[in-house]
Amino acid sequence: MATLLDESLTGSLAVRQLSVYYGDKKALGPVTMTIPGRQVTALIGPSGCGKSTFLRSLNRMNEMIPGCRVEGVVKLDEESIYGPGVDAVAVRRRIGMVFQRSNPFPKSIYDNVAYGLRLGGMKDRSELGGRVERALKHAALWEEVKDRLNESALGLSGGQQQRLCIARALAVEPDVLLMDEPASALDPIATAHIEELIHELARDYTVVIVTHNMQQAARVSHNTAFFYMGDLIEFDTTQTIFTKPTQSRTEDYITGRFG
Amino acid sequence: MSRSSLRPSRWPHVGDVVLWLATGLATLLVLVILAVILIDVIKNGAPRLTLGFLTKAPSDGMTAGGIFPAIFGTVALVILMTIAALPAGVATAIYLHEYASPTAWGTRIVRIAVNNLAGVPSIVFGLFGLGFFVQFVGGGMDKIFYGGDKVFGQPALIWAALTMAILTLPVVIVATEEALSNVSPDVRLASAALGATKFQTVSRVVLPQAIPGILTGAILAISRGAGEVAPILFTGAAYFLPTLPHSLHDQFMQLGYHVYVLATQSSDVDATRPLLYATVLVLLVLTFALNASAILVRSRMRRHLSRSHG
After folding, report:
1. Is residue B56 part of a domain?
2. Which partner from B46, B101, B123, B205 sits 20 to 30 angstroms from A120, CA to CA?
3. What is the dihedral of CA B28, B31, B36, B40, to 10 degrees?
C-alpha cells in the first residue's frame, strides 16, 4: 500500500506537562509522554481516569466544552498545536477523531465521506470521487457500499456506520487518528472488523485509541498508557505493560483487581 | 402461604378505567365542539359559496357580490408577513442557540423579551404598529422623500404586514430554537472533528436537519397571521375598497376584518348573514389549506432527510 505521508514526518505526538482543568477542578495531569508515529497507542484506565479528556486535548476538541482549560505543550512533529495563532480548525484537519457512538450525518454515504474534503474547498467531482473511494477502501467498507453510495448513511448497520465514520475521518488524510472507544457499542463481529482495521491503519497513520477492554488493548496496540485518577501512571510497549508492568497499580488494574 | 394468581383479574383496574373515561370524554368534547362549528359554517355557508362569490367584489352595501378583494388582501398580507418574520426569526434563533453564551446577560434579556413578546395582547401590537410604523417610520419617510405628502404615513399593507410579523416573530424564534436543539450534539462534534468552523457546521449540518422544525414554526406563524384581526385594524385594513391594492403603501381588505364588518356594520343583518357564513368558510378553508401545504412540504423534507442524496 502506498503511504500517504511524507516519509520525513512520522506523525508523532510529543506531550509535555499537559494539564486539563474543568473550571477550577483539575481533571488531568501534568502528563508528559511521546506517542510514536504510525503505531497504535492504547489509553486504558478506569472510568473517570482522564483518558478521554487526554484524547480530546490532542486535537483541541475539549475546547468545545465550556469552562475547559489546557496548560502545557502538545507537538505534532515539532509543531505546537496550542501555539499562538494556531487555529483549532486546522489542528483537527490533521488530527482526526472517531467517537464512541457512530455519528454519520443524515446524508448519503458519499456525502458523509466527502464532507471534510468539501470543507477544505475541494469541488472537482473526479478528484472527490477518487478520494471517497480510497477512504472507503482504507476503512474496509468499499466492497459493502460501492453500489449504494447515494443511499442514506443511516441505513447502514452499526458496525458499518462506525467504519463509515472512520472513512470520513481518513478522507481528509490526517496524520493522526484519535479513537474514543470506537467499538464499545458494537457486537463482537463488528468489533473484530474494527480491530483488524485499526491494525491496518497503523501502516499509514498514528492511531491513539481509548478502550475499556483490556483484551482489545492487548490485541490492537503497540504501546499502552495506563491512566489513573487524572495521572499517567505508566507508558510502555503493550507487551511490557501486560506482562511485566513496573507499577503495582498497573498490574492490579490489568489483572482485574480494581476498576 | 398465599401466592398471587397469574390468572387475569376479572375487573380492570379502577384507575385505568377512570383515566380512560376522563381522557376519552375530553377528546370527545373537543371533537364535538369542532364538529358543531364546522357543520354550522358549512351548512350555512356552502350554498352561498359560488365562483362569483370568490371572484367578485362586494356590492350593494355588502349585501351582494363576493369577497375577492379580502381573499387577495389576506394572501398578500400573509406572504409579506412571512417574508419579514421568517428570516429575522430564524436568524435570531440561530444567534441565541448557536452563538450567544447561554449565561450572558444580553442573551437572557433577549430571551425574556421574546417570551414577553409572545404574551402581549394583539391589540397592543396594533397600537404599536400605528404609532411606530405608520406615524413614526411612514411619517418620517414622507417628510424625507415626499416633502410631507401622505404616501407612507398612513395605514398600509406594508405596515400591517410588518406589525403582523412582529406578532408572529416569537412563534418562529421558539420553533426554530426547538428545531436547533433537536439536532444531535453527536453530529456537531463529528463536524467539528473534521475541521469544520462553527459557521460550516451550522450551515451544512445543523440547519439542513432543522428545516422541518423551522417550517413548523412558519406554519404556526402563518395560520396565526391569517386569523388575527386586531394588529391590522389601525395599520392597514380597510372596511371597503373599490380596487385591489396596487402597491405596498395601499390599504387592503382582509377576510377576518371583513367577517367583523359583515357581522357588526351591516344595515341589513338578514341579507348579510349568508355572506358572513360563506366568508367564514373561506377563511377556514384558506387557513387549513395554508397549513396543509406547509405540512406537506415539511413531511417531504423529512423523508428527503432520512434517505437523502444531499
Report:
1. yes
2. B101
3. -160
**Cβ separation B190–A168 shorter than 8 A:** yes
Q: How far is A255 from chain B (nearest CA, A)?
A: 34
Report yes or no on B232 lying in a domain: yes
Closest partner CB to B193 (pick from A92, A107, A111):
A92
**Is the residue at B9 inside a domain?**
no
Question: What cell was used for A2?
Answer: 502506498
Residue type, A28: L
B265 grid coordinates: 356594520
Q: CATH number of the domain that B117 lies in?
A: 1.10.3720.10
Distance from CA of B210 to the nearest CA of A (A): 12
What is the torsional sign of CA B178, B287, B257, B56?
positive
Q: N- to C-terminal Cα distance for chain A?
A: 40
CA separation for the pair B101, B90 (Å, rounded): 18
Would the CB atoms of A61 and B189 count as touching at under 8 Å?
yes
Q: How far is CA B79 from CA A126, A231, B162, B222, B290, in A?
A: 43, 61, 11, 8, 11
Q: Which of B182, B194, B205 to mutate to test the interface with A (most CBs of A within 10 A)?
A: B194
Superfamily of domain A13-103+175-254: P-loop containing nucleotide triphosphate hydrolases (3.40.50.300)
3-class SS string, B131-172: HHHHHHHHHHHHHHHCCCCCCCCCCCHHHHHHHHHHHHHHHH
Phi, psi of A58 (to 5 degrees): -80, -20
The predicted-structure confidence for A216-251, as pLDDT tens digits, reads as follows 999 999 999 999 999 999 999 999 999 999 999 999
Each residue's pLDDT tens digit, B186-241: 999 999 999 999 999 999 999 999 988 888 888 888 888 888 899 999 998 888 88
Q: Do B189 and A103 touch (CB under 8 A)?
A: yes
Tally of structural domains, chain B: 1
Measured CA distances, B203 to A112, A241, B211 (Å): 15, 46, 11
According to the model, what pLDDT value does residue A190 have? 84
Torsion of Cα atoms, B15 then B16 then B19 then B23, to 10°: 180
Domain of B87 in residue numbering reads as 44-304
Q: Which backbone phi and psi does B70 adopt, to 5 degrees?
A: -70, -40
Q: Is A231 helix (H, G, I), strand (E, B) or coil?
A: strand
Closest to B85 in 3D by CA, of B157, B167, B156 = B167
The size of the A-B interface in CB pairs under 8 A is: 73
Confidence (pLDDT) at A227? 94
The pLDDT tens digits for B261-275 are 888 887 788 888 888
What's the gap between Cα B277 and its chain centre? 22
The string of DSSP codes covering A126-160 is HHHHHHHHHHHHHTT-HHHHTT-TTSBGGGS-HHH
Q: What percent of chain B has pLDDT over 70?
A: 95
* Cβ count near A252 (within 10 Å): 14
Pairing status of strand A95-98 against strand A176-180: parallel
Amino acid at A3: T
